[in-house]
Structure formats: C-alpha cells, structure tokens
Amino acid sequence: MAGLNGSERPDVAQHVAMRAVVWWMELQSGKDTRAQQLALAQWRAEHPDHERAWQHICSVSGRLRNLTDATGDAASAAAARAALTRTGASRRRAGVKALATLLFAGGASWIASEHAPWRAWNADAHTALGERRSLTLADGTRVTLNTDSAIDIRFTNAERRVRLVSGEIMIATGHADGERRPFIVETAQGSLRPLGTRFAVRQQSTLCRLDVFEGAVRINPAEAPALAPVVRAGQRARFTRTDVGALEPISENDAAWTDGLLVASGMRLGDFVDELGRYRAGHLSCDPDVANLRLSGTYPLADTDRVLDTVARILPVEVVFMTRYWVTVRAPRA
To answer: Is the domain of 148 the same as that of 226?
Structure first.
C-alpha cells in the first residue's frame, strides 16, 4: 500500500510500527546514547519486520520535511509539519499512535480518517497529553477538557452544539435559552441532550461513554434515534451508533480527573495502567501475569513517573523503561 508521497507502506503489526516510532523519537531527541544505539541495532536484527519498519520510518520521515503545500497532498504536508513540530518542541506531548498512523498509513487514508490527529489539532479547543483545560461558553456552560481531547463549538440562533472530536470532556450546562436554543453534544456515535446537568462524555474507538453526575441526559444514537433513553445522575451508559448498553453505577471518584487525580478503589492493575497511559506519551502496558492485582489510593496525574514508582512500592511488580516512551509493568525478575 502506498504511503505519503508514493512510498510503500510495509505490512507490519501495529506494535512493531509503534515501537519503530518510539526508537525514531528517541533519536530525534538528540540525547541518544551508545547503549540506545546498540539496543536499536539489536531490535532491528530480531525480526525482518523490525528492519522493514525502521527503514520505512527513516524514508518517510525524511520526505515529510520536504513536503510543501504545492504538492497534490497539501493537507498531509500541513499535518505532517504539525506532527513533527509538536514532536520536536515538546516530546512529552508527542503522540506515538498519531505519528505511527501518519508515518505508516499516510496520505489520503490518514486525512480521511474520522479520528485523524489533525482534526484534533485544528479543533476550536484542544489539550495535549497530560493537560487539562477549562473554558466557559457564551451561555455560561462550563466545559473541562481532559488529556488529549478536542472539541468544536457551534452556537447558532437555533441551537448550542459542542462536538467532541476526541478524548473526554466534563460539562456543567448553563441555563440560558434552554428551550429556544437546545444544548447538544455531538459524538461519532450520536448526540446527547442534557436536561440541566453535569456530565462527562468520553469518545472511545468504537463507542462513546456517558457518565451523569447531576440531572439527566438523553442519548440519541445516530442510526437508532427511536431508542432515546434518559440516563440519570449516578448512572453510566455506553452507546454505539445503533445501540445503548445497560446502565451502570458511577461515583464522584469517576470525576476526579477534573482535579488532576486518578482515584482507584480495588481497581485491577491492568485497568489502572490503561487509564494512566492516557496521561503520558508513548506506550505503557501491563503484563497479563500481574494485570489482576488490585490497588487503591489517590494518585496525582501531573507526574505519571511518580505514580509508577508508587505502584512498584506497594505491589509486587517492577516498572521497566525500555525507553522513555516504552514502559512495561511486570512481575519482578531475578
């Protein structure tokens, strides 16, 4: 398959593509060491796909810097330059998955994707990895964006609409023009109509999650508008374009991210690591052997390295940094 500027995309697994991106980002940092160079050489020699992925990323990353808006792929050029600028200016805010998608999919397929990173970068409001941002809309509605999130805002004489492009938001609705101009939250799976409330919406890969903390919210799946269930305070619902799942209970701890905290109460370590990974650049994973361990506590999201260090002190696990962008939580080894 052709990638950006006609380059051939190697048919490699996503984890191999992401690992190649991690190595590439390490070298771009300018702080690579002899040990890292040797480790990269060893990784490249482990499997033919590793070498193919590395050669591809080196080839394409060079082309990206030479693309101009005069080419037939102007949108890709602009998006590519944005990706590279973000990586160089703030490595901690770089998105490995975004770069892997860009460098290994490329061109029209990347631009056409509903979840292409450039859509978030061009949104009306967005946050980087690990960042939170709050803003007050013209009607008094308060919106808080979680890590790596983006929204578009469209207020007209007929409605007040917020489109969740990616990530997660908390909304405390204002009350101006409630009947004359309904407030609507649009997601990839449908729309939400709050009934004077405080609620969180999280866009996931194939579904959307709604948590209601005050009031109530009506769900309208895009392809099943007749369903239209109402989710009330203390309830969670997940929905797709065609269906709405069973209601689940929530607590105020599920809103702790708005205060920069991750609260665990008997949480599986695997789930905890997945959640923590949303707030740091790169790849963070948990080995299946320790994924079912449980932990509790309140953890500050501003310093994920500190959180990982705490986890290693309270549970029988170790945290292994292959690089700054490739971290694994596993059972201790002799």
So the answer is: yes
